[in-house]
Design brief:
Blueprint: H1 2-26, H2 35-55, E1 63-64, H3 65-71, H4 73-77, H5 79-82, E2 89-90, H6 92-96
């Protein structure tokens, strides 16, 4: 009986956790939204792009580990976690953490 309850509880936790991940990914506002959410999204994208471009010293469209260490200490600390494809660089999508805002 305890095993069945444990499995049920484990399944429930898994379902809730994955649903929160899916919701979190879709909570990023689209740039074409009207109203405050759209305004905030456009402002956030503009600021993120300014920081990305400032950190991209060699202007190759991506951030290397050394560029992150020099300009973005938080990203330098989390570099391996953010570098999803493991190429040693942060793309725009890896930098912002989603692909809803084109560069």
């Amino acid at each position: 009986m305890k095993t069945a309850r444990f499995r049920t509880a484990s399944l429930l936790v898994l379902v809730l956790a994955t649903s929160r991940i899916a919701v979190g990914q879709t909570m990023v506002p689209k740039l074409d939204m009207e109203g405050r959410r759209g305004d905030v999204a456009r402002l956030a994208k503009e600021r993120a792009l300014e920081k990305f471009n400032a950190a991209d010293s060699d202007k190759d469209g991506r951030i290397s580990r050394s560029e992150a260490e020099e300009h973005l200490p938080y990203f330098a600390e989390k570099f391996n976690e953010r570098d999803k494809n493991g190429d040693g660089f942060l793309s725009w999508e890896e930098y912002v953490g989603h692909d809803r805002w084109p560069r």
